């Protein structure tokens, strides 16, 4: 009878993709592929988990990249990153589970419809006490993910901040082009500005040669948006970067974290929508990611813009999976209710 209550749009339950292997009870030899379980978000008989568990969801869209005149391909990111993740050893112990809840997928739907569908799926995950790990998709993933976190989190959390590892601000105005993969954070800004609500946004890894001057102008004129360029990060001691991040995120109650794979040098991440000849180092990024995760403030994170058809020997998908491996380990130890 109550079955009608939850009916997520554009939602595909995870199929037992070939990446999943038979269960291995021996935690010393198990891999992610032996441990990941499938879960149907539309099953309303599911009780919420008593303790925080992880939920993987794919966002199968590169429509925003296409509208933004980038090279498409990120629609296959979720499949390839899952394959890389499955091969990693299980370090999460016996009390943590990872559930693959499937994909948001709709080849004939608009980008905005898919973003809305993602936001409802994220709300449902929070309701179940599943920590959302969204596997993109173009960076249009971010707006859907963010809206879901904003609406789905406890009502007493009013200061949800945003940290983005990216070459681009993704703050482009969208009144002419319409929303796309380069406008998500402007949409977040506008959404909150119109409602008089909290918005704070930090971008780490900006490349001057990859952003128009009107974006630097917008950032300079707007409160609560800050950034470090990739070149600044290269020259700064690690502790200084960490201090800057800590200062900026100090008043955030919760953090939505997003990692654009195009923030890395193409030598590390060739399979992206927009290649980068300079770019952040994966190790520095990982150190900062671990630091952010250790704050206990992360509410959800995503890895976006992996484009398998442009990848070389799965380097980019593997790097994205590596971040999931390390982030989950820290979140499991710090986000204890
Ligand atoms: Mn981006």
From TrEMBL:
One GO process term, biological-process aspect: L-histidine catabolic process to glutamate and formamide
Top EC category: hydrolase
Binding site for Mn(2+) 2: 166, 168, 260, 262
UniProt keyword Hydrolase present: yes
Reactions catalysed: N-formimidoyl-L-glutamate + H2O = formamide + L-glutamate
EC number: 3.5.3.8
InterPro entries with a match to the protein in the record: HutG (IPR005923), Ureohydrolase (IPR006035), Ureohydrolase_dom_sf (IPR023696)
Keywords: Histidine metabolism, Hydrolase, Manganese, Metal-binding
Entry note: cofactor: Binds 2 manganese ions per subunit.
Stated name of the protein: Formimidoylglutamase
Gene name of this polypeptide: hutG
């Amino acid at each position: 009878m109550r079955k009608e209550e939850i009916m997520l749009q554009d939602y595909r339950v995870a199929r037992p993709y070939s990446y999943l292997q038979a269960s291995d009870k021996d935690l010393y030899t198990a891999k992610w592929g032996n441990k990941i379980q499938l879960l149907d978000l539309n099953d309303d008989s599911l009780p919420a988990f008593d303790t925080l568990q992880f939920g993987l969801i794919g966002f199968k869209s590169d429509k925003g990249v296409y509208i933004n005149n980038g090279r498409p391909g990120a629609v296959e990111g979720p499949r390839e990153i899952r394959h890389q993740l499955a091969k990693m050893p299980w370090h999460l112990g016996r009390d943590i589970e990872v559930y693959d809840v499937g994909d948001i997928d709709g080849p004939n739907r608009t980008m905005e419809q898919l973003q809305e569908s993602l936001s409802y799926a994220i709300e449902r995950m929070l309701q179940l006490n599943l920590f959302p790990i969204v596997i993109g998709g173009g960076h249009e993933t971010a707006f859907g993910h963010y809206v879901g976190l904003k609406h789905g989190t406890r009502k007493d959390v009013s200061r949800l901040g945003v940290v983005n590892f990216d070459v681009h601000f993704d703050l482009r105005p969208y009144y002419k082009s319409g929303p796309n993969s380069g406008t998500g954070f402007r949409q977040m800004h506008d959404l909150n500005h119109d409602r008089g609500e909290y918005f704070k946004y930090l971008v780490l890894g900006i490349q001057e040669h990859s952003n128009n001057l009107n974006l630097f102008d917008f950032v300079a004129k707007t409160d609560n948006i800050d950034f470090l360029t990739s070149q600044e990060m290269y020259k700064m001691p690690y502790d200084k970067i960490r201090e800057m991040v800590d200062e900026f995120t100090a008043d955030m109650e919760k953090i939505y974290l997003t990692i654009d794979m195009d923030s890395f040098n193409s030598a590390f991440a060739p399979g992206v929508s927009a290649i980068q000849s300079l770019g952040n180092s994966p190790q520095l990024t990982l150190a900062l990611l671990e630091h952010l995760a250790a704050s206990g403030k992360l509410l959800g994170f995503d890895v976006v813009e992996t484009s398998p058809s442009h990848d070389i020997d799965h380097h980019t998908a593997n790097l994205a999976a590596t971040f999931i491996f390390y982030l989950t380990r820290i979140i499991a130890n710090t986000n204890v209710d």
